[in-house]
Amino acid sequence: MNIQRVIPRVHGLFLSHFNVNQPSCCAIRWFSSKSDINEHRAKVMAKGLPEKKPLPGVKSIILVASGKGGVGKTTTAVNLACAMKVIEPDKEIGLLDADVFGPSVPLMMNITGEPMLNDDNLIEPLLNYGVKCMSMGLLVSGENAVVWRGLMVMQALERLTRHVAWGPLDCLVVDTPPGTGDTHLSLAQNLPIDGAIVVTTPQSAALQVTKRGVNMFEKLKIPIVGLVENMSHAMCSKCGTKNYVFGNETKQSADQMGLEIIESFEVDANMSECINSGKPAIYALADSIHAEKYRQLANKVFKYISDKDKEAKATKQ
Ligand SMILES: Nc1ncnc2c1ncn2[C@@H]1O[C@H](COP(=O)(O)OP(=O)(O)OP(=O)(O)O)[C@@H](O)[C@H]1O
Ligand SMILES: [Mg+2]
User: What's the pTM?
Assistant: First the structure.
């Protein structure tokens, strides 16, 4: 295969689209009358939403999201993708880091190096732990801050999805940034997403933001696989008492939102070590309760995908 270095090309592609010195859109547009506004609005609406085209060779797509930052989305996405590969080694699993401003998948999956372009001009994902990975962190150097507007983010996501040789994949797990912004909208409007796993911690501040995230997915018609409660409590290493350091309100909120808590992970001091060493907990702490729960989560996701598949086939007949 004629593999080429991808970075100069990708930089070229990005730079041709993202000229920061010449912003691509004008921030304010003035209208002289109300009928002028209505005419403009009608034109915009007539354009409609972009068509959701499948990713070639990718059977299912699962988002890992949360309105709130720092609740453990990437930790969940990384361990879920690896656990899916562990329990079903014959299945092809991918992990897309859609956090273009703060990519942390390369660190957590211990992937470095330049991705290459294949004969079809597609970027080859990098492989570790048997999982195909792609991240903006692999395409721009670590120290360079990414300063982009919404449109640029959408174009970057287009590159990370449609210009990557993902297929064949049974499931692509997508790690998303915090918030309910351009990235989520862009992914939801462009990709056929099978479901979203919403990660939250048990304190009310996080749960409030989680509700906003859940509302967004409802509006975007993306089904929610369930809630993952992270950092549910800390266990005292001496007496085994559960300390609800972040509160204990997840169940109540889940009931209000009509969602199921599909897995719950306690605080474990070793988790941060896994991140620093680039070895996900599913491998580094293979005998731990966390690893077992990630395997159970992976099982639930496989079952969700297969049920959805059967449902789709049944409605077609
Ligand atoms: N169950 C856990 N016990 C202890 N530490 C944890 C646990 N889950 C995640 N962490 C730690 O919390 C920090 C944040 O996790 P992570 O980066 O996965 O969150 P995130 O939601 O992806 O953050 P961001 O919104 O910035 O993308 C990391 O240092 C991680 O090691
Ligand atoms: Mg993250």
Answer: 0.86
